[in-house]
Amino acid sequence: MGTRSTWLAIVFSLITLPAQAAVLMSPVKDADLQYDGILLDGTYDSTITHPDELLGFKVGTRVATPAQIHAAVMHWAEQSERLHVVEYARSHEDRPLIAAFVGRPDNLARLDEIKANLGKLADPRSTTDREASEIIEELPAVAWMAYSIHGNETSGADAAMAAIYHLIASQDKSVTDLIDDMVVIIDPMMNPDGRARFAKSLEQYRGTAPNVDDQSLLHIGDWPYGRTNHYFFDLNRDFFYLTQPETVGRVELINQWRPQLMIDGHEMGPQDTYLMGPPRQPLNDNIDPNLQKWAKTFAREQSAAFDQRGWRYYTGEWFENWYPGYSNYAEYRGSMHILYEQSRMAEDGVRRPEGTVQTYLESVHHQFVSTFANLQTLAKHSQAMYQDFWLGRKNNVSSKGKFANRSYVILANDNHGRTQALVDRLLAQDIDVYTAEADFDVDEATNHLGSTLEDVIIPAGSIVVPNRQPEAPLIAAILEFDAGVKDAVLLEERQKTLRDGSSIMYDTTAWNLTMMYGLKSLTVPEHLTRNLKPYKKPVVTSTPQTDAVAWMVDGGDDRSVAFAARMMERGAAVRFIDKPSEFAGKAFNRGSVMVTVTDNPHNDKLAQLASTTASELDIALVATNSGFGEGELPDWGGEHFRLLEKPQLGIISHGDFSSYDTGATWWGVDASLGIRHSKLDSNALAYTDLRRYNVLVLPSGRWEPDKATREALTQWVENGGTLIAHGNTAGQLASKDGIGNVRALQNSFDSAVDYNIALQREWLATSESLNTDKVMSHTLNTQFSFPWEDTLKPLKEDELKRRDKWLSMFMPSGAMVSGRTDQQHWLTAGTPAELPLLYTDQPLLMSGSDSQAVIRAGVYQPARGGNKRVNRDEGSSDGGNKKQANWWFTLPEDQALHVRMSGLIWPEASQRIANTAYLTREQIGNGQVILFSGQPNFRGSARGTNRLLLNAIVYGPGLGAEPRIAL
């Protein structure tokens, strides 16, 4: 060994020392736990160190740590010419993520050439059929084998380590022949932070004897468990959202290599067997149908390998491919994808219902055998698969193809930071993006509400993505407003819902990027090319002169909230402008932020501080020498320039809180604001000194506060705190034993009339028509009505409860609902009048006259033909434009309510969701309670609603609570 090899040997001795030394790390053997299968079988090159020697235990019998796996692969890279290692990312905890390229030495020497040829084959715009044939004839097969994206699903990574060794060290002809014309890329552990967390819990909970009880902490771990990464993100939902560094690096490398085959090694419930492809319906219809043909071919040969060994398995059943954010993301780029789901065994194995015990080694062996069965299938069919890939890519760019005449448009707006973030994600996935150089018109377009518009002007600066390009299937999957689903699938889903409340929808049914980002967009049924130029990131221009009296950033950009938060964190006083304004010849949106010399008399570096903060955020900073608002607009000394209070934030976690929502909130604060905050243990909340915080966030979860905790929180709010709650936790606070007057829908029916009156009041407050003659009349006018007089008699409480129980069966698993926002409320700064809202089976909030419904579900639009009044008893219509009865609420005259934007929402669910509040704000004493019906930063990508959460955190202490809390 050379110097590096000697160093690695020392590292291994340190890594494996605890395992070799500790008694608890060597469990007592049990006859039931023996498995006589041989994982590594054959003749191996003695110059390549066996993994058992490196690990200090037999590979596949224990969970190797991330450090052990990484060290082993790097050690082998020193020893073998068949192995080349690339580090493609670093986790949040600074652990390396690597891809191990295995192949013949001469193929590894020309990896750049192979990658370039794959790129040429992927773009028919610059490659001819003849060139494609020549490339296909010469290309080796390329496979991407990835494992353990969920850190507590460990067997895949251990199988990957064994597979790498088998491929580089085996001298058996079957193996050398396999890699003779193939490049195998093995991604051995896709989530090292989560795996490290779970491996640590195994150390903590291991006893002296094997534990085969799958309910034991040894098998489960602790909150937040090992499934997720550092910020508790499920990385197998992030493939096109691209929020986490593990995903960003992985997707970049996958997109460069365009593998023919991508496998993803998972684990599932410990009492299950083994699931393999192909998936069942619903399937995303943007995936090339040829891939389903190959899925069956691979499944037959993988199942045959299991049959040979007497191992039980099944295909499909619960696994569908509709949501494009899983690892099957690669299918939208033309790769064959296969999911492995092995029953989870931890290390000690699990006792099965039939009385047998399945060991961890057997689980690892299943993954190992699947890996090589799939590689053998690829070796046989690689050429034919390349031919299908080429035909699919040609169809993507064909003027007569499926994606020929469709373009997606993100309309020009002032939220430059959010728009740039979306464009960055498109560009990262090899999608061609353009900018409109000038205004142009199109004959027809469809908006988020599903309305068809005619003679539409596309303003200059809009982002345009034509669907007719090589990555057309992926573009359609993430930008189309609705994902197609077969009628038969809908029927089956409906039947299952009614039969037993089950579902064939495995995940959310809506994910459109423009809706998630809350950016107004259109679908145009044309291949747009005119008035377009390739996208180029706009240059930010600032005017940070030092002799100004104030500096401002525009509130239309999300980064303005971070600017305010960071400036306050650095000791500056900051003001929030609650009306549109104009200074220094520039118009500013409502919610803009101003820092003045008057508020900061002792800060002689204020200009530099503002400039540095704006530069960090890449947001334009505008200086002004006058506080006079130009035109009929507010001036800086008036009531519309409101002084903010620095947020002192606590995020409640652990216990019964959702780790996903907790992590998304935590990551959102770090990534979007970059300010200090504390995570607090929910189990000790009643005994925590809450006076240190003026903002508390309660993520969604099954949390039910005890009396002491509820009283402590109530007192804290009354003293001036801002309490923010999401999802099911908001539902708890909206129960009859909660905090405040907002109620969950099922707890509101005794006051249904009052809620309806509050709803009518909100509607009337938006009316722009007024009979001034009647107002100015000197005589008593008796010809007016009360809002409740023109509605039908409300249903009785028992009937409302009965109906709600029925309607609640149909709540969505994840769908986009149109929301109407209060454009005068400080919480909606930077938010459009119509905002897409992601709804699941979540609490529905009811806000009356004693609270504020900042956002409600449903957008009013003129109805065709007017609303008819319906008689419940006879089902007849008396005509006229009267208000229509809809269980607890009534619709205004001549108005229809648009509810569904995208995804599966049964009519019953739309009825239940309509006009409930998504976001409420209520004053309680000197403080406030802010409730979100859902999770505002869902998967770190619901940027439209996340802006509301950031507003609540940063602006809440100054705008909604009084007096301010002083430490």
TrEMBL record:
Tagged with keyword Signal: yes
A Gene Ontology BP annotation from the UniProt entry: proteolysis
Originating species: Alteromonas halophila
Region (Disordered): 864-884
Highest taxon in the source lineage: Bacteria
GO MF annotation, one: metallocarboxypeptidase activity
Pfam families attached to this UniProt entry: Peptidase_M14
Limits of the Peptidase M14 domain: 62-375
Protein name (database record): Peptidase M14
